[in-house]
Amino acid sequence: MFLGEFQHTMDSKGRVVIPSKFRARLQQGCVVTKGQDNCLQILTKKTWEEEASKMASLPSTDLTSRQLRRALFSGAIDVKIDSAGRIPIPENLRDYSGIDLNEEVTVTGSGPVVEVWSTRSWKKIQKEADQSFANINEVKE
Questions:
Q1: CATH number at residue 22
Q2: Which residues form the domain of 81?
Q3: What is the C-alpha to C-alpha distance for residues 24 and 106, in angstroms, rounded to an integer?
Q4: Domains held by the chain: number
Q5: 27 is a domain residue
Q6: Sign of CA pseudo-dihedral 10, 16, 19, 20
Q7: Does residue 40 sit within a domain?
């Protein structure tokens, strides 16, 4: 389980530091792909295989299923953490997520996945999520 929120800066070569507490689970390699709300997701190989299997089993006759598969698979890359604890983020994924070179990013644990956000986007998304969470009321039937 990945937990926590960390600020880092994407370097001029498009690399992002993975928080040290996440590295052990990702050290054997991981997959970076597009996530919801324009974040990037980093998945362990095992989690990736589970998600990829679910996506591959969606009906090819359904437009939404095809679009989901295209987004997930076309944007995915296998990466390894380098000796400095960084992973490379290619230009197409930086464009998708709105992350610029030398920009501050927020790396969050999101249960089974790690998310990488433009800090500008993260602050907005997190504020909305916090407000929704604070105002959730249990509905009793």
A1: 3.40.1550.20
A2: 5-134
A3: 19
A4: 1
A5: yes
A6: negative
A7: yes
The token pair at 28 is 């054997």
Q: Is residue 141 part of a domain?
A: no
Average of per-residue pLDDT values in the chain: 94
Q: Tell me, yes or no, whether 74 lies in a domain.
A: yes
Other residues' Cβ atoms within 10 Å of the Cβ of residue 69? 15
Look at residue 95 in the predicted model and tell me its pLDDT.
96
pTM: 0.90
Whether the CB-CB separation of 59 and 65 falls below 8 Å is answered with yes
